[in-house]
Amino acid sequence: MDSDTYQTPLASRYATKEMAYLFSTAHRFSTWRKLWLNLAIAEKQLGLPISDEAIEQMKSNLFLTPEQFEIAAQEEKKRRHDVMAHVYTFGLVAPAAARIIHLGATSCYVTDNADLMFIRQALLYLLRSLSVVISRLSAFASQYRALPTLGFTHFQPAQLTTVGKRATLWIQELLWDLRNLKRARDDLGFRGVKGTTGTQASFLALFDGDHEKVESLDKLVTSLSGFPFAYPVTSQTYSRKIDVDVLAPLASLGATAHKIGTDLRLLANLKEVEEPFESTQIGSSAMAYKRNPMRSERICSLSRHLMVLHQNALMTSSVQWFERTLDDSANRRISLPEAFLTADIVLSTLQNVSEGLVVYPKVIERRISQELPFMATENIIMAIVKKGGDRQEAHEKIRVLSHEAGHQVKHLGLENDLIDRVRKDPYFNPIANQLGELLNPSSFIGRAPEQVDLFLKDWVEPALAEFKDVVEKSGKVELNV
């Protein structure tokens, strides 16, 4: 049996080693063995006749060798049952435990509980990665907190903002994603020891009708497996609505990442901000001059896939009949690992981009100079009024000059010369010496720099406090391709 059976092609090439291993068959089947061990320890502690030798043999053989993978594969081919194939294989290397492995349990004891363990750890990996991305973008926002840039609404020129303030819009959504992922992890419980249809009938029989021991068994195995609580009731499986609740914040993260990637692609087209571009990187096989934003495009591409995977969980949850049907199994073996692996790749790519963003202030300044004269007209009118002028007359003067300048830009392809026209018009002589100040971009950005400072201090720093060590120890991400 190949150790990458449960991995998608993405995992083997792009995912971090931790996330790829988490969803590998090597880790999956090792986790099954740990769950069988936990069950045996708890059953022994509560009085079932399980020998110390059996426990020790199980402890000594938690990790499968290549030979054991092959035995399990052959047994599964014969029996058409993966769990029973691994019960048999485990018994070969722990013969003293062979008769009690999986005692009283159903297949979902290992499959579902293992999935919950993987999900819980995967959420922690994503939280750590996301905290690093937020930290990197926060440093970027702080660096460019006061650099004026043209704002866009409807992708049309709007009032000025700053490069740093725009980045805080991305960070704020990522903070919400951090919150959502934490909530999902904190809410995650254990299926526990519930038996074939969730009634614990088999365990009640094992303990001769002792309900307290059955309850103690459930709690003890849950604790041994690292969970603070088990779901109070289950069917044969844990409710597939749990998968819905888990994949929802991943899909939401995908939406955030897609928005960031799209903004960066648009900025690359404007030549204002670019993602990292290697000195030997080729943008196009035909057009040698091109610098395609391929990392941001990858983020958008994978994020769309991540958002769609949530639909799988919704459909699976909605059609799980009564105590359980099997049509969820093949779907979940693909959709759950793929969702976490995809989120992992999206975050590592986003970190790589955030660590190498390049800003072009001169391009930004030039674009501002093309649009700012129109935006400054109200300031010019107000300045004239303060000098004793008539607002309606000033408005008409500016309107005419603006249309003339607009003609230069739109019809003749020339630069915006509105301010030159204002300077040459005697009507505006009273404020001629104020025009430089009235056109200073920094006077059009409002409280953007202060908003950046307060946001980073009051919101980002507290949110990242518990991940401080992770952020400080994290190195730069180098993408494979």
Please tag this protein with its features:
481 residues; mainly alpha; Fumarase C, Chain B, domain 1; Fumarase C, Chain A, domain 2; Ribonucleotide Reductase Protein R1, domain 1; 3 domains; two-stranded antiparallel sheet; 20 helices; 4% strand; disordered N terminus
Descriptive account of the structure:
Its EC number is 4.3.2.2. It is an enzyme of class 4 (lyase). Keywords: Lyase, Purine biosynthesis. This is Adenylosuccinate lyase. This protein has a two-stranded antiparallel sheet with strand order 1-2. The chain has a two-stranded antiparallel sheet with strand order 3-4. It has 20 helices and 4 strands. The chain has helices spanning 9-13, 17-22, 25-45, 52-59, 66-79, 82-93, 107-143, 163-187, 201-206, 211-224, 241-270, 294-318, 329-354, 361-375, 377-386, 391-410, 418-424, 435-438, 448-464, 468-473, and strands at 148-153, 156-162, 273-274, 358-359. The protein folds into 3 domains: 1-105 and 195-233, Fumarase/aspartase (N-terminal domain) (Fumarase C, Chain B, domain 1, Orthogonal Bundle); 107-191 and 237-360 and 451-481, Fumarase/aspartase (Central domain) (Fumarase C, Chain A, domain 2), CATH 1.20.200.10; 377-438, Ribonucleotide Reductase Protein R1, domain 1, CATH 1.10.40. It has 481 residues and is mostly helical. The chain starts with 8 loop residues before the first helix and ends in an 8-residue tail after the last helix. Helix 5 crosses helix 6, helix 8 runs parallel beside helix 19 and helix 15 (377-386) packs antiparallel against helix 16. The longest helix is centred in the first third of the chain and has 37 residues, at 107-143.
